[in-house]
Amino acid sequence: MDSPIPQWPKNEQPREKLRLHGARCLTDEELLAIFLRVGIKGKSAVALAKDLLHHFGGLPRLLASSPDEFVRIQGMGISKWAQIQAAYELVKRSLEDTLLQGSIFSDPGHVKEFLQAKIGSLPHEVFLCLYLDSCLHLIECQEIFRGSITKTAVYPREILKEALARNASAIIVAHNHPSGNPLPSAADQELTQTLIQALALVEIPLLDHCIVSKRGFFSFSQSGFIKYDQN
């Protein structure tokens, strides 16, 4: 049987490893075990965390799990699900705060991290608009459309109306591919061109169209499909 964590050598216990070496030195199982706090009879919190990750197929699917899915696992209850979801929400809010405080070009990686955390693991497709001011700081991130697992109906007129209502100087749009493949479809490419043309009529540039999934990220801007001179 797996011995309880307090019986492990001190330097192998997840909390002690975190204290001594930082969070990056811990495995997914060890980080998750810190939230679980205790295991069940015959399994340490680390072993239980490993079982959870195996059951859901990794962290993205675990973080997107519903309470009903989560509590079906032996030893799991609604309180543990709530603790994990609260921590995940704090991460997303922290990333959004970073975008609110600085230009989106100050660290492009923050946009990717924020979008993947916010919508990358969702089982349904959503379409986001990030409205930016004249200094390219985030004004607001809005989920403007939600669709099925295969298709979202996106109306450029609605995006244009919402951008004008917020006095946006530029926007970034993003959506997720629940299938896992982040590459743009022909419809995605057509929509991007339609948005560029529609927004140009009111002098609001489309800076990027990002597609995120559990396994990848695609940027129309980084791939050369959208060109913007930030100077």
The first-to-last residue Cα distance is 63 Å
Q: How many structural domains? A: 2
- Strand ordering within the main sheet: 2-1-3-4-5
Mean pLDDT, all residues = 87
- CATH topology heading of the largest domain: Cytidine Deaminase, domain 2
Structural class: alpha+beta
Task: Return the CATH class of the largest domain.
Answer: Alpha Beta
- What is the overall shape? elongated
Sequence of secondary-structure elements:
HHHHHHHEEHEHEE
Question: DSSP helix count?
Answer: 9
Description of the structure:
This protein has 231 residues and is of the alpha+beta class. It has 2 domains: 5-89, DNA polymerase, domain 1, CATH 1.10.150; 105-219, Cytidine Deaminase, domain 2. Helices cover 43% and strands 14% of the residues. It has helices at residues 14-21, 28-36, 45-56, 59-63, 67-71, 78-101, 108-119, 156-165, 186-200, and strands spanning 126-132, 138-146, 170-176, 206-212, 217-219. Strands 2-1-3-4-5 form a 5-stranded mixed β-sheet, with helices on both faces. α9 links the parallel β3 (170-176) and β4. α2 (28-36) packs across α3, α6 runs antiparallel to α7 and α8 crosses α9. The longest helix has 24 residues, at 78-101. The model has no long low-confidence stretch (mean pLDDT 87).
